[in-house]
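Please decode residue identities from the backbone states below.
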């Protein structure tokens, strides 16, 4: 479940600091970042598992 719905793809750090204006928003922003990293890491683990089975079968 997403905590914040933010598109930060073209956002500079100074611009981001304008909406991180209280502790609750900042905590939600950090939480979203942690969940994003976990999703990326899970995807990488799946890709490595798939690649290892392909290499084993070759």
């Amino acid at each position: 479940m997403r905590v914040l719905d933010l598109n930060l793809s073209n956002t500079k750090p100074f611009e981001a600091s304008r909406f991180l204006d209280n502790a609750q928003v900042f905590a939600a922003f950090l939480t979203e970042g942690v969940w994003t990293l976990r999703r990326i890491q899970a995807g990488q683990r799946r890709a490595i598992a798939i690649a290892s089975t392909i290499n084993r079968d070759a």
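Observation: Helices lie at 13-19, 23-57.
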